[in-house]
Amino acid sequence: xxxxxxxxxxxxxxxxxxxxxxxxxxxxxxxxxxxxxxxxxxxxxxxxxxxxxxxxxxxxxxxxxxxxxxxxxxxxxxxxxxxxxxxxxxxxxxxxxxxxxxxxxxxxxxxxxxxxxxxxxxxxxxxxxxxxxxxxxxxxxxxxxxxxxxxxxxxxxxxxxxxxxxxxxxxxxxxxxxxxxxxxxxxxxxxxxxxxxxxxxxxxxxxxxxxxxxxxxxxxxxxxxxxxxxxxxxxxxxxxxxxxxxxxxxxxxxxxxxxxxxxxxxxxxxxxxxxxxxxxxxxxxxxxxxxxxxxxxxxxxxxxxxxxxxxxxxxxxxxxxxxxxxx
Length: 327
What we know:
Elements: E1 5-9, E2 18-22, E3 25-29, H1 37-46, E4 50-55, H2 61-74, E5 84-85, H3 105-116, E6 121-122, E7 129-132, E8 135-141, H4 144-152, H5 163-166, E9 175-178, H6 194-197, E10 201-206, E11 209-213, H7 219-225, E12 230-231, E13 234-236, H8 248-252, E14 254-255, E15 258-261, H9 274-286, E16 291-296, H10 299-304, E17 305-308, E18 315-320, E19 323-325
Parallel strand pairs: 3-4, 4-5, 5-6, 9-17, 11-13, 12-14, 13-15, 15-16, 16-18
Antiparallel strand pairs: 1-2, 1-19, 2-3, 7-8, 8-10, 10-11
Helix pairs in contact: 1-2, 2-3
């Protein structure tokens, strides 16, 4: 039996897009921005792996855009037997809001394309366990309450309509991580960030190895559903390294030395945050580790990081990579 576990980090610009190869099977996790569709298309045309599932963690355009374009133009590359996991109001049994503001049109558009062409959409909530052949997905987020809040606010949620125009406006300024500075904890309220807060987050397990995908989730939601400190072979850090989505309390629940930050370093978002990198290192030291790897899908982002006052005896490896073998 083929037991390799490989994580492919696509260039999703401001967003996320990953392909996980588990033996002979493959899973797509998010689609990045529209431009990411060309990478997904190329992979599907060339791979000898069998696509077994697609996860759309939430419907921000930098997570769903590439898949909207892929299904619009190249749906023949995907079997209708492949399940698509996505939380959409049609799948959530709550009364929808009657107010009609800006519709969450990319999510609706993709849902319409999938339904019209015979693809099956499935929701995913906390405590769901999905088993697809030898691969297990333990859903940590969203709770049913968060999914219901997303549904109720679906038509009221304002899109970042200028995202497609601004995704190439990346910063060239250095990201200075000073370990002598104590960083404050920053958090957003769930109510004011319901789209990210309700994003699907999960543990992927395959042949004794585990990857934690945090999508753009809020730290307290994940803390509440990780019962104890848990070992992982790799962790995809939440929300592109935003200072609002990684706390020391969350990192206390995670025992890992390999972390992924997916972002092209947009000028207007401050991703990745120096405080997030500092907290990752602090957490690893606290657990007695001597080093950690922080992996970026854009070389220019990794090259921008400048570290000061690094704790003695601890090695921080800043790595640019487009694929990662999980041994």
